[in-house]
Amino acid sequence: MFPFDSSKKLSFSRYISDGDLLIVYERHDNMKAVKVSESGVLQNRFGVFKHSDWIGKPFGSKVFSNKGGFVYLLAPTAELWTLVLSHRTQILYIADISFIVMYLEIVPGCLVLESGTGSGSLTTSLARAIAPSGHVYTFDFHEQRAASAREDFERTGLSNLVTVGVRDIQGVGFPDEFLGRADSVFLDLPQPWLAIPSASKMLKQDGVLCSFSPCIEQAQKSCETLRSDFTDVRTFEVLLHTYEVREGNLRSWQDNDGGSMSLKSCKKRQRSTKGLENASSLTIMARRNGESRGHTGYLTFARLKCTL
């Protein structure tokens, strides 16, 4: 995902090479990660695609199969990787991830501590944010899960930015080697309040902590614990709604939905020369997509109190 040269400068190529990892895009809800091989072949419902035909093409290219079907070959960004990675645990998605990266004030060069690693969705975005000179140290108590995440970071070219450790952070806390060194700490744990005292010792003065919890009771107990050593304690819930916007008529949209219609809002454009709009006139319509994700969890942020 982020190839680096010896001077630690980003050296991403815009053209596909043998051995590259890319995202094959069939449609918005059907993508897969594929490693390019000179002799490799991809078969799907659109036909047979030879990897050798992809080599040398720029990322974003539209390529055709033996049947005339097509897919798009996309560069593996952190956002796309989140959509195609193996779900070893419930993952964080783009709305929460972007909020976390912003409120943790993560910039290139930061040292970030994370527990637990899970499927590595957030870790991938953290690694991109701290590149090229920062580092993410992520911990998971489950040895096999940590090993799988380590393999994924090797696969995506992030292993020089991420170190995966096996450790029960709730039970024993973060390693002492990080005392006072971390710019940010992220916790995704069943009982985050048990790890907060250790996290406070790891943070630099004015460092920021974030805890993700699916239940409000977990967030409440975390807030109680945070108030002893932290200030500016705030909890958020990020809800993302996507909209489908298309040109058509009201009747055709109702027919496609089997008669059900739930327009959240629509902006109509008059297409008829007559002064009256009717169900058969073409309009620009918008409605909330039924696939929108609802509640994922609560994000609690806090800043370490300065003791100077």
TrEMBL record:
Signal peptide: none annotated. It is an enzyme of class 2 (transferase). GO terms for biological process: tRNA methylation. Belongs to the class I-like SAM-binding methyltransferase superfamily. TRM61 family. It comes from the Eukaryota. GO terms for molecular function: tRNA (adenine(58)-N1)-methyltransferase activity. This is tRNA (adenine(58)-N(1))-methyltransferase. S-adenosyl-L-methionine binds at residues 119-122, 140, 168, 188. Pfam families: GCD14. Residues 69-303 form the tRNA (adenine(58)-N(1))-methyltransferase catalytic subunit TRM61 C-terminal domain. Its EC number is 2.1.1.220.
